[in-house]
Amino acid sequence: MFPTHTKRRISKKREKALLAGFHTVWANKDYATIISIANKLPEETPQEDEKLFTPYDLALTRTEES
Questions:
Q1: Domain span including residue 37
Q2: Domain membership flag for residue 11
Q3: What is the DSSP secondary-structure string of the chain?
Q4: How far are the Cα atoms of 20, 26, 31, 57 from residue 11, in angstroms, in the given order?
Q5: For residues 7 and 29, what is the distance between their CA atoms, to the nearest angstrom?
Q6: Which of 13, 25, 26, 63 shows the smallest number of beta carbons within 10 Å?
Q7: Domain annotation covers residue 15
Q8: pLDDT tens digits for 22-65?
Q9: Is residue 5 included in any domain, yes or no?
Q10: CA dist 12 to 18, 42, 49, 52, Å?
């Protein structure tokens, strides 16, 4: 589980792992999982990292359209 209280950036290794996971669940159209995981990240992480923000933003858009 990701801590929600830390102000540190996530490491590059964890960022790559998250992106790989996002890619896998995106392929399965499991947008709720992307949103759930992104909501567990420190609030500033998706906002500061466009690579993580993009799948999250698109997942939100896709769930709103459904």
A1: 29-66
A2: no
A3: ---SS--SPPPHHHHHHHHHHHHHHHHTT-HHHHHHHHHHS-THHHHH-HHHHHHHHHHHHHHHH-
A4: 14, 22, 24, 21
A5: 31
A6: 13
A7: no
A8: 999 999 999 999 999 988 888 777 677 888 889 999 999 999 98
A9: no
A10: 10, 15, 11, 12
